[in-house]
Amino acid sequence: MIHRGDEGKLIYRCDNLLPCEQCMHGRTCRKRIHEQADVYFLQNYLSHVEPAEQETFLSKMRATMEQAKPGAVFVIIDLQYAGSKTIMRELANRVQAEWDVPADIIGTNLFSGGAPAWSRCPYEMPAEVQAKIFRGDSGFLPKKWTRYYYLVLQKQ
Hints:
By secondary structure, the protein is α+β, with helices and mostly antiparallel strands. Helices cover 27% and strands 24% of the residues. Strands 3, 4, 5, 6 and 7 form a 5-stranded mixed sheet that branches. It has a two-stranded antiparallel ribbon with strand order 1-2. The longest helix has 15 residues.
């Protein structure tokens, strides 16, 4: 992140919801990210993409994959929300069917009955955090288990 307050949208001044052609930063992201990155992580992002922004996001994802170097891996993980699943499925379908960007789905739980995966929090909550933040009032408790969808793509 370049600036505080980017809210997850700006990485090297690249707006994930703005088509590349409209970006005022030109090819900065391509020089600093696409030509060097081996692994791209997109975690807990899709749940924040509004339905009206879905097509823009998918176009931007296609452009990012097109610019990525061969062998680059895209790991997309999001919580169990219908919107996240819809966007992830559409991305997977486009990768398999219509895109001219050669890529493979190397891992997903989207098509195995649609059941999300489970993950257990791998650490114990520090006593100070438990005592001052997650006290249990108003149902505010730490999550031990999380359900999520994932999609892992690799550019050929």
